[in-house]
């Protein structure tokens, strides 16, 4: 909600991300991250942001109630906590997805190596006078040649990626 409101209000004021960033003494990438929902401003910055955009924090956070709250900072911090939890869940989902893709890649590499070992380069015994067998055999040999040399590197990189995704943050 914050990201959409921030972008809408900034554009309605005719400000670019760069101009808003200069007013807030931050870099443009920070404004971009806020607008894309990748991070959220802290409570002090949220108040400054609302002041620069001539709006209230409630409007930025998507509330329809325009009445000032008695404990504004507490309400803001609670909302930011909810937003941060949502971002953390989204990031955790991405990490788990990447982890499972890497695990699947490792399994595929192991299965492919097993299949190649079982086949024992059977295509080398084909009659290469037949052009179709010659083409198919060459393709199989090329695949095996490249796979056997690159798959171990991909396997090691995947294992490292899996270990990194299991590290505590």
Short description:
Helices cover 75% and strands 0% of the residues.
What does this structure look like?
The chain is built from seven helices and no strands. The chain has 169 residues and is an all-alpha fold. The protein folds into two domains: 2-68, lambda repressor-like DNA-binding domains (434 Repressor (Amino-terminal Domain), Orthogonal Bundle); 87-166, no CATH class. Helix 6 (72-119) runs antiparallel to helix 7. The relative contact order is 0.08. The mean pLDDT is 87.
Q: Strands, helices and their partners?
A:
Layout: H1 2-12, H2 17-24, H3 28-35, H4 43-52, H5 57-61, H6 72-119, H7 131-166
Helix pairs in contact: 2-3, 6-7
Largest sheet, in brief, is: none
- Radius of gyration, rounded? 28 Å
Q: Note the run of SSEs as H and E.
A: HHHHHHH
- Give the assembly state of these chains: single chain
List the total number of helices. Answer: 7
Question: How many domains is the backbone divided into?
Answer: 2
| Strand runs, count | 0
> How far from one another are the termini?
26 Å
Percentage of helical residues?
over 70%
Mean pLDDT metric? 87
Return the structural class: mainly alpha
Into which percentage range does the β-strand content fall? under 5%
Protein name: HTH cro/C1-type domain-containing protein
InterPro entries: Cro/C1-type_HTH, Lambda_DNA-bd_dom_sf
Keywords: DNA-binding, Membrane, Transmembrane, Transmembrane helix
Transmembrane segments: 100-126, 146-166
Which key features would you list for this structure?
169 residues, mainly alpha, 434 Repressor (Amino-terminal Domain), elongated
């Amino acid at each position: 909600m914050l990201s959409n409101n921030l972008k809408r209000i900034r554009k309605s004021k005719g400000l670019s991300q760069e101009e808003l960033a200069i007013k807030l003494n931050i870099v443009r990438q920070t404004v971009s991250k806020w607008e894309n929902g990748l991070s959220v401003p802290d409570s002090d910055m949220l108040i400054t942001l609302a002041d620069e955009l001539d709006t209230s924090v409630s409007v930025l956070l998507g509330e329809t109630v325009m009445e000032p709250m008695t404990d504004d900072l507490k309400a803001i911090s609670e909302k930011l906590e909810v937003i941060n939890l949502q971002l953390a869940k989204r990031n955790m989902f991405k990490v788990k997805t990447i982890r499972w893709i890497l695990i699947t890649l490792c399994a595929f590499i192991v299965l492919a190596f097993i299949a190649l070992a079982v086949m024992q380069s059977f295509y080398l015994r084909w009659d290469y006078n037949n052009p179709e067998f010659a083409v198919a055999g060459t393709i199989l040999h090329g695949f095996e040649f490249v796979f056997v040399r690159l798959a171990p590197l991909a396997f090691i990189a995947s294992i490292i990626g899996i270990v990194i995704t299991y590290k505590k943050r």
